Amino acid sequence: MDVKIHESWKEHLKQEFQQPYFHSLIDFVRGEYTSGTCYPKGKDIFAAFDHCHFMATKVVIIGQDPYHGPNQANGLCFSVKDDIPHPPSLINIFKEIQNELGVSYPESGNLERWAKQGVLLLNATLTVRAHQAGSHQKKGWEQFTDAVIKKLSDEREDLIFLLWGGFAKKKSRLIDSDKHQVLTSGHPSPLSANRGYWFGNGHFSQANEILNLLEKEPISW
């Protein structure tokens, strides 16, 4: 499996690609895809980077790992392919946007439209074995995606990081909050949302207010 990632990221991440852990990771992933069913499709593993280029990134949303059901994962966190039923967390994300911004609930759960506007939808783990949540964790993906977050923090300014839930909040240690805006809340999963930790967080309107202040184009959520 060759590493196919958009040119805009290659210069910034070339040191990671040369690390022993990354070579071991790619060998592991190649073996997993050869021996069984894994998600997303190989061509979509780095889709978050392909749709949102390094200098175009304005907002970063961090997920944990891909959906592990058939035809769901498309390489962007929380996103599913067109015509796929919306998973519970995505439903709650769309409900919050609907409540906050007064926009209609969308038909498609494909978030490529966000990525193309500068939203990096980054899962901490980029692959998963079918029907086995978390099966590719602790194989090297987290080291790689932590390096991505740190690189964005170090080399960019005025990014907006949306950290939802305990797992994502731990990534704040990688982010220079003097240079960037970090917004945190509970996770959009039903367990968290139904306890009052998600709805009403205002993150989508706040992100656009910040972008307006920075004289950047707001996101059409």
Helix tally? 9
Shape: globular
Quickly count the domains: 1
Q: Considering the protein shown, what is the CATH homologous superfamily?
A: Uracil-DNA glycosylase-like domain
* Average pLDDT level: 96
Fill in the CATH topology: Uracil-DNA Glycosylase, subunit E
Structural class: alpha/beta
The biggest beta sheet reads: 4 strands, parallel
Order of helices and strands: HHEHEHHEEHEHEHH
CATH class: Alpha Beta
Low-pLDDT runs: none
Amount of beta strand: 5-15%
Give the total of beta strands.
Answer: 6
Using only C-alpha atoms, the radius of gyration works out to 17 Å
Strand order of the largest sheet: 3-2-5-6
Percent helix, as a range, is 25-40%
Distance between the termini: 34 Å
- What is the name of the CATH architecture? 3-Layer(aba) Sandwich
Describe the protein.
This protein has 221 residues and is α/β, with parallel strands linked by helices. The protein has one domain (7-214): Uracil-DNA Glycosylase, subunit E, CATH 3.40.470.10. Helix content is 38%, strand content 11%. The protein contains 9 helices and 6 strands. A 4-stranded parallel beta sheet has the order 3-2-5-6. A two-stranded antiparallel ribbon has the order 1-4. Strand 5 (160-164), helix 7 and strand 6 form a beta-alpha-beta unit. It is globular and about 45 Å long. It starts with 6 loop residues before the first helix and ends in an 8-residue tail after the last helix. The mean pLDDT is 96.
